C-alpha cells in the first residue's frame, strides 16, 4: 500500500471525487508516496501566494507526478471548460498541474535543507 500523506483524505466536496481518487491511489505499491492537497508558498516581492495541488505522487525510481482532479464533465473547446460552459481558470487542468510541478521544483531547488544533500 502507498504511503499516504496525510493518512486520510482532507475534507473536500462530494462533487470533487477526491476521496475516491485518494482511495484508488492507496492501492499503489509501498514505494509510492501520495500527497493529498499539497500546498506550496511562493513569495514574489512583498506578495505571498499559496498554491494547492490536488495530488502529488512520488516514486524514487519513476519521479514525480502532479494531478489536478476536476469534478464532473470537463471539455476542451479552444479553452478548457466545465460542463456548465464556464471557462476554467489557470488554463485548465493540464496547465494547472504543470505550473504546480514547476512551483514544487522551484521550492525544492531553493530549499537550503534539500540542497545540503547535494
Give a description of the structure.
This protein is α+β, with helices and mostly antiparallel strands. The chain is built from three helices and six strands. It has helices at residues 18-25, 93-109, 112-115, and strands at residues 3-5, 32-44, 47-59, 63-67, 74-76, 80-82. The strands form two sheets. It has a four-stranded mixed sheet. Strand 1, helix 1 (18-25) and strand 2 (32-44) form a beta-alpha-beta unit. The longest helix is centred in the C-terminal third of the chain and has 17 residues, at 93-109.
What letter string, H or E per element, gives the SSE order? Answer: EHEEEEEHH
Tally of individual helices: 3
Largest sheet: 4 strands, mixed
* Principal-axes shape call: globular
Low-pLDDT runs of 5+ residues are none
Topology of this protein?
Elements: E1 3-5, H1 18-25, E2 32-44, E3 47-59, E4 63-67, E5 74-76, E6 80-82, H2 93-109, H3 112-115
Parallel strand pairs: 1-2
Antiparallel strand pairs: 2-3, 3-4, 5-6
List its salient traits.
single chain; 118 residues; alpha+beta; four-stranded mixed β-sheet; two-stranded antiparallel ribbon; 3 helices; 6 strands; 25% helix; 34% strand; globular
